[in-house]
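Data availability (excerpt). The following record was deposited with the supplementary files.
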Amino acid sequence: MLDDFLIRAALAGAAVALVAGPLGAFVIWRRMAYFGDATAHAAVLGVALALAFEASVFAGTLVVALAMAVTAVRLKGRGHAMDAILGVLSHSALAIGLVAISLVPAVRVDLTAWLFGDILSVSRADLAVIWGAAVVALGLLVWRWRPLLTATLNTELAAASGIDPRREDLTLTLALALVVALALKVVGALLIAAMLIVPAAAARSLARTPEGMALGATVIGLASVALGLQGSLRFDTPAGPSIVTAAAVFFVLSFVFGPLLRAVRSHGR
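Predicted structure:
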């Protein structure tokens, strides 16, 4: 019989994988990898503010991640060089967050848990918050799937079809902030972007449709959580990094066998 803490860890990881799969596909299609990284790094500042004001860490992380994402979107709309802007925002938010945490009086904080996750300590209350946020984020993506996909492929076509690309950007931004907030406990601020990008990148070479890529990323994410937790218990390694390592193995396998699969499909036509 599995221990109760391991069941909670698996359920928390599954929630992250379910929403990170389809959202990660959009991150790759829109070339938003650095955007996701900047939003995730801002989570540390959210932790510091939540501890300072004795508020919910999830709420503090969500507010700061959303503020970071909206700021990046607005700066992009004004024509700024996004690679430089995101680099400044990302590393500045991470550094300020680490400094702020050290200045919070009478609070002892295990930075490793926030930077790399502490999925094995997820409580029932944490699980309820994580799944609640995952359902909201996944619901947003399902509800706006077609408009989001159209706006991703061609903004002019989206506008001609009556779709407001800026509204879809906001939807994606909100979903990304939710994922950052719910994944912080699972894989930590430094590895959240990896959970978005690596499973989706692995699924990209195997899928033939956008929906297939999103589903494949979700399946790979779920398998990575299962294998990562098993490896963590067997080899006594950190759980969050072990999950991302498992996802990286799937990416390597997809990189090796993806061309073979495409050749088989072409031959079968």
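Summary of structural features: The chain has a mean pLDDT of 87.
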